[in-house]
Amino acid sequence: MKDFILKLVFIIAKAAQYGFAFIAGSICIGIVATMILGDKIWQYTPVKYGHFTVFHALLALFVALGIFIIMLYMAICIQKLVRQFQVNSIFISENIQTVHHILFGLLGITGLQLLTALFFRIVHVGHISDTFDFSLGDYWVNLVFIVIAFVAGEVLKRGQQIETDYNEII
């Protein structure tokens, strides 16, 4: 049962990795199109924002690209963790570092979303996309994932200490 669950999590993380890579590639195409077309880009989109400029569009695209690159990296980290768990290497320093990478990725995503949402509110630009629709519910979801990653890191650290103490006694 444990092997089945780990394989399933690995497959889901692998699919997420490919999905995030596809989305990041699509965003790169959007960045190139926006840079090439400039202000002409608005005739190809349904966007009708009054003072939404090319700068705002590029900022939103670059931040979204950063978010999806971080998510891609986190999917790779999850795959790495699952591979270690499949060979029963749980309480090792490599896993602790990987969980910390996931934690910092979650903090980075939350920070990017928050700063971008604040910037767009300051310059009075309306709803850009769901990526930057950072409501109170998103804060709670991100906070829950951050706490889970932090607790997982602490559990792995404590498990490694217990395992080291056990090996020293023997």
UniProtKB/TrEMBL annotation:
> Which keywords has UniProt assigned to this entry?
Membrane, Transmembrane, Transmembrane helix
Chain segments annotated as transmembrane = 20-37, 57-78, 99-119, 139-156
Name-wise, this protein is Membrane protein
